[in-house]
Design brief:
Layout: E1 3-7, H1 16-31, E2 35-38, H2 44-54, E3 60-65, E4 80-84, H3 87-97, E5 101-103, H4 108-122, E6 130-133, H5 140-151, H6 157-160, E7 163-166, H7 169-177
Parallel strand pairs: 1-2, 1-5, 2-3, 3-4, 5-6, 6-7
Helix pairs in contact: 1-2
């Protein structure tokens, strides 16, 4: 993996561990020579992961919609800042630039981004590893809910298994490096669209 997209909150949340783990993830990406692709802001967990990369000699590419420039202040030290017009363009560009995805704690936007990447993988539009860094058990209830979707027959187990989870940065990156995508598509292949 040469680049990983990280989805996370533009706020820091209530637990210090969210910020410290975001910073550690950035530092570890830099140490492994993996470039960061993220939302481009210098605030919250977004800023922490970027600082973790940049302060350790790594490269960080931000993708920021023009209309969020005044709300999510663009990070000034980025290797590259790409401005787009819409949120959909942002997700598409972040997908195009990366070899895998990690979600850190965040809100609706983070979940939207995570689930869109999972949906695209389920449909066979990409075969990238998609992961959750489950910092302080933040995603525990979501993980249980996703298992419930499979248990109730609304999500194939093979698709549930696409989501990699760990509370350790190193372990999660190792899982992503060793990821083997499912060979069974949902309904279509990319060549069909």
């Amino acid at each position: 993996m040469k680049r990983i997209t990280v989805f996370c909150g533009s706020s820091s949340g209530t637990e210090e561990i969210y910020t410290s783990q975001a910073t550690l993830l950035g530092k570890t990406l830099a140490k492994r020579n993996i470039e960061l692709v993220y939302g481009g802001a210098n605030v919250g967990l977004m800023g922490a992961v970027a600082d973790g990369v940049l302060n350790n000699g790594g490269k960080a590419i931000g993708v920021l919609p023009n209309f969020l420039r005044s709300k999510e202040i663009a990070h000034k030290q980025l290797t590259e800042l790409i401005l787009v017009d819409t949120m959909h363009e942002r997700k598409t560009k972040m997908n195009d630039l990366c070899d895998g995805v990690i979600a850190l704690p965040g809100g609706f936007g983070t979940l939207d981004e995570l689930f869109e990447m999972l949906t695209w993988a389920q449909l066979g539009l990409h075969k990238k590893p998609i992961a959750i860094l489950n910092v302080g058990g933040y995603f525990d209830a979501l993980i249980v809910f996703i298992q419930n979707m499979a248990d109730k027959g609304l999500l194939k187990e093979v698709n549930r298994e696409m989501l990699l989870v760990s509370d350790s940065v190193e372990d999660l990156l190792d899982k992503m490096e060793n990821y083997v995508p499912p060979t069974v598509g949902k309904w279509i292949d990319k060549k069909d669209i």
